[in-house]
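Before relying on records like the one below, remember that each one covers exactly one chain. Contacts with other chains, cofactors or solvent are not represented anywhere in the record.
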Amino acid sequence: MANNIIIKPIVSEKSEGLTSKLNRYTFVVDKKANKLEIKKAVEAMFGTTVVDVNTVIAPSKQKVRNTKSGIVRGRVSAFKKAYVTLAEGEELDIYGEVE
């Protein structure tokens, strides 16, 4: 069930800054999932205590590329982000074993 709700973690400069300063992790989640389901999924997957969950729906965007065959127009679909705040002293091992 948790695998259906949490799609993937977001790794960017902004999300890494939130992780280091506020112990807040960012995930792409299912658009139909609510905050309670996201909280239960993170706690089940990582075995941590979640203090707070904030969600944002990122709107879709138009994208245009120039190629040899001409201009290609497309669209990036909308998705839902969840900002998950963990209890103090806890952290997630998103990367696994990095050598």
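Helices lie at 2-5, 13-22, 35-46.
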